[in-house]
Design a protein that fits this description.
alpha+beta; 8 helices; globular
Protein backbone atom coordinates (compact mmCIF):
# COMPACT_ATOMS: atom_id res chain seq x y z
CA UNK A 1 0.00 0.00 0.00
CA UNK A 2 1.40 3.33 -0.96
CA UNK A 3 1.50 6.33 1.31
CA UNK A 4 -0.29 9.35 -0.13
CA UNK A 5 1.98 12.23 -1.02
CA UNK A 6 0.07 15.06 -2.63
CA UNK A 7 2.06 17.30 -4.94
CA UNK A 8 0.44 20.54 -3.81
CA UNK A 9 1.83 24.00 -4.54
CA UNK A 10 3.29 25.82 -1.56
CA UNK A 11 0.68 27.43 0.63
CA UNK A 12 0.26 31.11 -0.06
CA UNK A 13 1.79 30.98 -3.54
CA UNK A 14 -1.37 29.97 -5.36
CA UNK A 15 -4.50 32.08 -5.07
CA UNK A 16 -7.37 29.94 -3.80
CA UNK A 17 -9.93 32.49 -4.88
CA UNK A 18 -9.22 31.79 -8.54
CA UNK A 19 -10.61 28.29 -8.21
CA UNK A 20 -14.32 27.54 -8.40
CA UNK A 21 -14.90 24.36 -6.41
CA UNK A 22 -16.88 21.71 -8.33
CA UNK A 23 -20.53 21.63 -7.32
CA UNK A 24 -21.40 19.37 -10.25
CA UNK A 25 -18.59 16.80 -10.14
CA UNK A 26 -17.92 14.53 -13.09
CA UNK A 27 -17.21 10.80 -12.77
CA UNK A 28 -13.62 10.08 -13.71
CA UNK A 29 -12.58 13.64 -12.96
CA UNK A 30 -13.58 14.77 -9.46
CA UNK A 31 -14.68 11.33 -8.27
CA UNK A 32 -14.55 7.67 -9.26
CA UNK A 33 -17.43 5.25 -9.68
CA UNK A 34 -16.48 2.12 -7.76
CA UNK A 35 -16.34 -0.97 -9.96
CA UNK A 36 -17.63 -3.12 -7.10
CA UNK A 37 -20.09 -1.14 -4.94
CA UNK A 38 -19.91 -2.06 -1.26
CA UNK A 39 -22.86 -2.74 1.06
CA UNK A 40 -24.00 0.07 3.36
CA UNK A 41 -25.72 -0.15 6.72
CA UNK A 42 -27.91 2.94 6.56
CA UNK A 43 -31.70 3.05 6.38
CA UNK A 44 -34.07 5.57 4.87
CA UNK A 45 -32.57 8.63 3.18
CA UNK A 46 -29.39 8.70 5.25
CA UNK A 47 -26.20 8.31 3.23
CA UNK A 48 -23.14 6.44 4.47
CA UNK A 49 -19.86 8.35 4.20
CA UNK A 50 -16.56 6.65 5.09
CA UNK A 51 -13.24 8.40 5.48
CA UNK A 52 -10.20 6.15 5.04
CA UNK A 53 -7.24 7.60 6.92
CA UNK A 54 -4.09 6.90 8.92
CA UNK A 55 -3.05 8.64 12.10
CA UNK A 56 0.54 9.13 10.91
CA UNK A 57 -0.53 10.63 7.56
CA UNK A 58 0.19 14.41 7.57
CA UNK A 59 -2.56 15.06 4.98
CA UNK A 60 -5.13 13.22 7.12
CA UNK A 61 -4.07 15.35 10.07
CA UNK A 62 -4.38 18.53 7.99
CA UNK A 63 -7.78 17.49 6.63
CA UNK A 64 -9.29 16.66 10.02
CA UNK A 65 -10.70 20.12 10.91
CA UNK A 66 -12.24 20.50 7.45
CA UNK A 67 -13.86 17.05 7.38
CA UNK A 68 -15.10 17.45 10.97
CA UNK A 69 -16.78 20.76 10.10
CA UNK A 70 -18.30 19.24 6.96
CA UNK A 71 -19.74 16.31 8.94
CA UNK A 72 -21.23 18.72 11.47
CA UNK A 73 -22.95 20.69 8.69
CA UNK A 74 -24.40 17.52 7.16
CA UNK A 75 -26.26 16.74 10.38
CA UNK A 76 -28.60 13.76 10.15
CA UNK A 77 -28.35 13.52 6.35
CA UNK A 78 -25.36 11.19 6.65
CA UNK A 79 -23.91 8.40 8.76
CA UNK A 80 -20.21 9.18 9.01
CA UNK A 81 -17.64 6.47 9.67
CA UNK A 82 -13.89 6.19 9.61
CA UNK A 83 -11.67 3.28 8.64
CA UNK A 84 -8.01 3.30 9.58
CA UNK A 85 -5.83 1.91 6.81
CA UNK A 86 -3.80 -1.03 8.23
CA UNK A 87 -0.51 0.22 6.82
CA UNK A 88 1.52 -2.73 8.12
CA UNK A 89 -1.14 -5.42 7.76
CA UNK A 90 -3.39 -7.22 10.23
CA UNK A 91 -1.19 -6.33 13.21
CA UNK A 92 -0.96 -2.62 12.46
CA UNK A 93 -0.53 -0.76 15.76
CA UNK A 94 -2.29 2.46 14.70
CA UNK A 95 -5.32 0.56 13.38
CA UNK A 96 -5.34 -1.47 16.59
CA UNK A 97 -5.34 1.78 18.56
CA UNK A 98 -8.23 3.21 16.53
CA UNK A 99 -10.35 0.07 16.89
CA UNK A 100 -9.66 -0.06 20.62
CA UNK A 101 -10.70 3.57 21.16
CA UNK A 102 -13.79 2.93 19.02
CA UNK A 103 -14.77 -0.11 21.09
CA UNK A 104 -14.28 1.87 24.30
CA UNK A 105 -16.45 4.73 23.04
CA UNK A 106 -13.49 7.06 23.50
CA UNK A 107 -12.99 8.32 19.94
CA UNK A 108 -14.77 11.66 20.48
CA UNK A 109 -12.41 12.33 23.38
CA UNK A 110 -9.19 10.87 21.96
CA UNK A 111 -9.20 11.13 18.15
CA UNK A 112 -7.70 14.62 17.95
CA UNK A 113 -5.37 13.89 20.87
CA UNK A 114 -3.84 11.03 18.87
CA UNK A 115 -3.28 13.30 15.87
CA UNK A 116 -1.72 15.94 18.13
CA UNK A 117 0.55 13.41 19.81
CA UNK A 118 1.85 12.15 16.47
CA UNK A 119 2.12 15.40 14.49
CA UNK A 120 2.79 18.07 17.13
CA UNK A 121 4.41 16.21 20.00
CA UNK A 122 6.13 13.71 17.67
CA UNK A 123 5.21 10.68 19.78
CA UNK A 124 5.70 7.48 17.78
CA UNK A 125 2.40 5.84 18.56
CA UNK A 126 2.94 3.29 15.80
CA UNK A 127 5.41 1.60 18.15
CA UNK A 128 3.51 -0.46 20.71
CA UNK A 129 5.80 0.16 23.75
CA UNK A 130 5.66 3.92 23.10
CA UNK A 131 1.89 3.75 22.63
CA UNK A 132 1.35 1.92 25.90
CA UNK A 133 3.46 4.45 27.77
CA UNK A 134 1.44 7.28 26.18
CA UNK A 135 -1.87 5.62 27.09
CA UNK A 136 -0.78 5.60 30.72
CA UNK A 137 -0.28 9.37 30.54
CA UNK A 138 -3.31 10.20 28.38
CA UNK A 139 -5.97 10.15 31.08
CA UNK A 140 -7.43 6.83 29.95
CA UNK A 141 -7.75 3.89 32.30
CA UNK A 142 -4.82 1.79 31.05
CA UNK A 143 -6.19 -1.46 32.48
CA UNK A 144 -9.51 -0.88 30.72
CA UNK A 145 -7.66 0.04 27.51
CA UNK A 146 -5.70 -3.21 27.62
CA UNK A 147 -8.89 -5.16 28.24
CA UNK A 148 -10.36 -3.81 25.00
CA UNK A 149 -7.00 -3.97 23.18
CA UNK A 150 -6.87 -7.73 23.78
CA UNK A 151 -10.60 -8.37 23.33
CA UNK A 152 -11.92 -10.87 20.79
CA UNK A 153 -14.06 -8.23 19.09
CA UNK A 154 -11.20 -5.78 18.50
CA UNK A 155 -8.74 -8.47 17.40
CA UNK A 156 -11.28 -9.92 14.98
CA UNK A 157 -11.90 -6.52 13.40
CA UNK A 158 -8.16 -5.89 13.18
CA UNK A 159 -7.59 -9.18 11.37
CA UNK A 160 -10.36 -8.41 8.89
CA UNK A 161 -9.25 -4.86 8.04
CA UNK A 162 -6.82 -5.69 5.18
CA UNK A 163 -9.53 -7.67 3.36
CA UNK A 164 -12.08 -4.93 3.95
CA UNK A 165 -9.67 -2.40 2.52
CA UNK A 166 -9.09 -4.65 -0.49
CA UNK A 167 -12.85 -4.83 -1.05
CA UNK A 168 -13.01 -1.05 -1.33
CA UNK A 169 -9.78 -0.96 -3.37
CA UNK A 170 -8.46 2.00 -1.38
CA UNK A 171 -4.70 2.34 -1.79
CA UNK A 172 -4.06 5.85 -0.45
CA UNK A 173 -5.31 8.23 2.20
CA UNK A 174 -7.17 10.42 2.83
CA UNK A 175 -9.91 8.93 0.65
CA UNK A 176 -13.68 9.25 1.13
CA UNK A 177 -16.33 6.80 -0.09
CA UNK A 178 -19.97 7.89 -0.37
CA UNK A 179 -22.80 5.34 -0.30
CA UNK A 180 -20.41 2.50 -1.11
CA UNK A 181 -20.39 3.71 -4.73
CA UNK A 182 -18.51 6.97 -5.13
CA UNK A 183 -14.87 7.60 -4.21
CA UNK A 184 -13.05 10.91 -4.03
CA UNK A 185 -9.99 12.42 -2.38
CA UNK A 186 -7.90 15.60 -2.22
CA UNK A 187 -5.48 13.88 -4.61
CA UNK A 188 -8.30 13.37 -7.12
CA UNK A 189 -9.18 17.07 -6.93
CA UNK A 190 -5.52 18.03 -7.29
CA UNK A 191 -5.33 15.91 -10.44
CA UNK A 192 -8.32 17.74 -11.92
CA UNK A 193 -6.88 21.19 -11.22
CA UNK A 194 -3.09 21.53 -11.09
CA UNK A 195 -3.35 25.02 -9.56
CA UNK A 196 -4.80 23.83 -6.28
CA UNK A 197 -2.98 24.17 -3.01
CA UNK A 198 -3.80 21.88 -0.11
CA UNK A 199 -6.38 24.13 1.52
CA UNK A 200 -8.25 24.66 -1.74
CA UNK A 201 -8.24 20.94 -2.50
CA UNK A 202 -9.77 20.17 0.90
CA UNK A 203 -12.53 22.74 0.38
CA UNK A 204 -13.16 21.51 -3.16
CA UNK A 205 -13.54 17.97 -1.86
CA UNK A 206 -16.25 19.03 0.59
CA UNK A 207 -18.25 20.50 -2.29
CA UNK A 208 -17.81 17.28 -4.26
CA UNK A 209 -19.02 15.40 -1.19
CA UNK A 210 -22.06 17.68 -0.93
CA UNK A 211 -22.99 16.80 -4.50
CA UNK A 212 -22.36 13.08 -4.05
CA UNK A 213 -24.46 12.92 -0.86
CA UNK A 214 -27.32 14.64 -2.70
CA UNK A 215 -26.90 12.28 -5.65
CA UNK A 216 -26.91 9.21 -3.41
CA UNK A 217 -29.90 10.38 -1.34
CA UNK A 218 -31.93 10.93 -4.51
CA UNK A 219 -31.72 7.22 -5.33
CA UNK A 220 -32.91 6.01 -1.92
Amino acid sequence: MRFLRLAFAALGLVACTAFASPTAPVAGKEYTLMASPQPVSTVGKKVEVIEFFMYHCPHCNALEPTIAEWVKKQGDKIVFKRMHMPYTGDKDTETHLYLTLEAMGKLPEMHNKVFKAMHVERVRLNQEPVLMDWIGKSGLDKAKFLEYWNSFGVLTKLKRMPQLLANYKVDSVPTVVVDGRYMTSPAKLEESDKNLNETAAFQAMTQVLDALVTKAAATK
